[in-house]
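Hello, quick one for you while I still have it in my head. A protein chain has come my way and I'm curious about its shape. Can you walk me through what the tokens say about the fold? No rush at all, and the record is pasted right below.
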Amino acid sequence: MNNEEDENYMNSNPLYSKNNLLQDPNQSSESLSISESDLLSKQHTLNIPNQEKMNISINNNKENQENQVIEKDYEILADYKGNDYLSFKLILIGDVSVGKSSLINRAIKNTFQSGYSPTLGFDYFNYYIKINDKILKLQIWDTGGQEIYQSIVNNFYRNSSFAFMVYAIDNKESFEHIDNWLKEIKYKSSPDIKIFLVGNKCDLTEERKVTSEEGKTYCKNYEFAGFYEVSAKTGERAEEILVNAAKVLLNDFSDYQSVKNNKNDEIINENDDNISARSRKENDSHSKCC
């Protein structure tokens, strides 16, 4: 081939690329228009086989999925039939139409019905959960917010271990009425009752009338066990408030048992000391009698 034929052949043959020509010592570097960074990038890409690149992509996806998986430290026991459990009474209180019934149905049954249907008097649910090898039975009483049912609802304040005070973030009055519900709890239930302040309907961002900061401040001022904004409609944090309530109750029970055991130990030690003192006194009397 003459020079012109050689050049035509090289231009038409894909084997003669600029990368190949770069390795030709006779080829002038000035005739190449590819930058060094482009070459390095292409070389790095070419050096990775397709299968290896696919494996890298799969591994990255697996790592992302593993990071997103959060192991639960509890187990919901939907069909529990045993008798070995700790039982606690919980109540939901708040104004009408704040979504108490919708919230508890979403948390327990994962169901939601649009439209307002008032609770007539009260509703009742059992909720079993296992935490740290302990099984808890939460007896949840959903109370009606209408005044005509207050005489009935008052009976459910007694012996309650936990209360959810619920308001709606799109209803300022329901938040302002929390003061009244708090007085009811303090007056009619145990002074040691634990309370969560719950702002429902957090999905209604554009209709919000109560800020998150207002809820947090109220919770902090009255030293409640927790504050949550939830949505019965979307299910956001609905189950979480029940799980965390169970954890609070279990910790409180464990602390109570610890104190109780310490008091029993003190009583036993005191009895042992009294017995020892009586024994010494009897021995002394016997030694003096003869």
The chain has two domains: 3-68, 75-249. Residues 75-249 form a domain with the Rossmann fold fold (CATH 3.40.50.300). The mean pLDDT is 77.
